[in-house]
Amino acid sequence: MIPGITIYELFTVTSILFFIGVYGFITRKNLISVLISVELILNASVINFVVINKYLYPDILQGVLFSIFIIAVAAAETALAVSIIINLYRQINSVEVKDIETMKY
Amino acid sequence: MERIVFYILALIIIIFAFASVTSRKMLRSVIYLLFVLSGIAGVYFLIDYNFLAAIQLTIYAGGIIVLIIFSVLLVHHIEMRLEIAKTSRKITTGIACLLGLGVFLFTIYSYRFNVVENSLTTNVDEIGIKLLSYEAGGFILPFEVISVLLLAAMIGAIIIAKGNKLSENNNQTK
After folding, report:
1. Given a cut of 60, is residue A60 above it in pLDDT?
2. What's the sign of the alpha-carbon dihedral B37, B42, B47, B48?
3. Potential cystine with B29: which of B23, B43, B117, B124 (Cβ 3.0-4.6 Å)?
4. pLDDT tens digit string along B93-143?
5. Which of B71, B89, B112, B116 to probe the A interface (max A CBs under 10 A)?
């Protein structure tokens, strides 16, 4: 654990990071910006896993292993999202959320 | 000392996260995200999980950021300014997020956590043994499943990004 830092301060930082991500997810109009916001949300949850593991159960490693899995899933998700965005741009020449109608059916 | 470093890191994370969701230039917002991810890696270093910090730096700061920058450069003009949301919508969303944050913080601060004072360090070999152990509490099955998932995502990304333009062109030339 970090000397002098309580678990509450770490949770405050991750909560703020999570809600910044939610704010960006709702207000942004561009697919890549939405992807960036999703990355922020995922990172906030990963820090929470790690912090809870270190502060509350330091002798087991479940939180670290789960955060490794979350990072792997996030990498796969980003690769797929980028390929979908590039494919969409080829077909409709835009990556704005409001222009995308071909995936609604 | 650690306090000061942690507060600097927290400030970097929050300021650049906010800049990253409000900046109107696409490429800048991606670079701000890079700073956020590096700050998070710094938090992992502080909390003494060096392996996780290395993973964060290589996969997020190295891989995902490069992928997003590639997609930005492929689909945007660099000078293009992003369309901005309506002010009323921004204010509504901001108030909703602040309310949610208030609920989160109230819940967190009203709960007593049983914090265990410790200064254990974790070696990489412990993580590796735990990942590959098939006894109780081992993670061999999720490890294998995640490898299959990564392979499937890779093939899917190639197929989706290739699109059907190429095959159409081939048919036309035949």
Report:
1. yes
2. positive
3. B23
4. 999 999 999 999 999 999 988 888 877 788 888 888 888 888 887 889 989
5. B71
B20 touches chain A (CB under 8 A): yes
- Which residues in A lie closer than 8 A to residue B142 (C-beta atoms)? 65, 69
B135, B137, B138, B139: CA torsion to nearest 10: 150
Chain B residues within an 8 Å CB radius of A16: 14, 17, 101
Q: Are B157 and A83 in contact (CB < 8 Å)?
A: yes
Q: What is the CATH number of domain B1-82?
A: 1.20.120.1200
Map residue B44 onto helix, strand or coil.
Answer: helix
The whole-angstrom separation of Cα B133 and Cα A65 is: 12
pLDDT value, residue B174: 43
Closest Cβ–Cβ partner in B36, B90, B153 for A76: B153
pLDDT attached to residue B165: 57
pTM (two decimals): 0.88
Instruction: Determine the CATH number of domain A7-94.
Output: 1.10.287.3510
Asked if A54 lies within 8 A of B49 by C-beta distance, the reply is yes
Look at residue B118 in the predicted model and tell me its pLDDT.
79
In contact, B64 and A39? CB cutoff 8 Å:
yes
Confidence band for A104, pLDDT divided at 50, 70 and 90: low
